[in-house]
Description:
Strands 4-3-2-5-6 form a 5-stranded mixed sheet, covered by helices on one side. A two-stranded parallel ribbon has the order 1-7. Strand 5 (about 110-115), helix 4 and strand 6 (about 135-140) form a beta-alpha-beta unit. Mean pLDDT is about 80; it is low at about 1-10. With about 150 residues, it is of the alpha/beta class. It has helices spanning about 15-20, 30-45, 95-105, 120-130, and strands spanning about 60-65, 75-80, 85, 90, 110-115, 135-140, 145. Keywords: Cell membrane, Membrane, Protein transport, Transmembrane, Transmembrane helix, Transport. This is Biopolymertransporter ExbD/TolR.
Amino acid sequence: MSVLNHGRKSAGGGLFAAGRHRERNSDEGIIPLINVVFLLLIFFMLAGKLSQIDPFEVTPPDSASESLPDGSTLTVLVGADGRIAFDGKPMELDALPAALEAHARDGAVLRLKADQQAEADRVIEVMESLRAAGIEKLSLLTTKTGTGE
Length: 149
């Protein structure tokens, strides 16, 4: 029986010894790690959503409505204790029209997120202040009944 080695001689002397003693490149272990990190980065970019944290706790009332809120990012918060916040900043009711003045000219839709424990009189005061500031379209945020969202 004749074995052709094509003129190569291995250091170990065996027929396939050259493949067993192949030195590992130090980059070979890093490339899969980089691939996994990029895949995780892409996953979190697609699955994650950055949102602004409310300056105080607000639990909207339940609703049976199936409609979703519009894409507006302008939100006025009314807390259970009557505190008001706009654009992530707590403020007094008197300062709200001035803060909304620029947005009212754009015809923007504003979202009102009032706590379910907030007094109705306070929410109505805020709504009247919004109307006085020129806001014509207002969405009241609620949670879907039974979901707690």
